[in-house]
Specification:
With 70 residues, the chain is mostly beta strands. Strand 6 and strand 7 form a beta hairpin. The chain is globular.
Length: 70
């Protein structure tokens, strides 16, 4: 699983997923903020544009990642 943070667009791009697998973005206190299914190429994207700066958790079917939006 690969996570890319596209800064100018404020988009989190996740690749290497199984088709239909889910990517979920959580606030640091565990609230689900967004959930996107992977497309047929195993990719999913989540916009961070409307979220305040801070720490978030990204979960896929296989891994979890902590990210910081500044």
């Amino acid at each position: 699983v690969v996570i890319e943070y596209i800064i100018p667009l404020l988009i989190l791009l996740v690749s290497g997923l199984i088709q239909g697998g889910k990517v979920t973005l959580y606030s640091i206190d565990g609230k689900v903020l967004s959930q996107q299914p992977a497309n047929e190429e195993g990719k999913a994207s989540i916009s961070l544009e409307n979220l305040p700066n801070g720490a978030y958790v990204v979960k896929t079917n296989k891994k979890s990642f902590k990210i910081l939006k500044k």
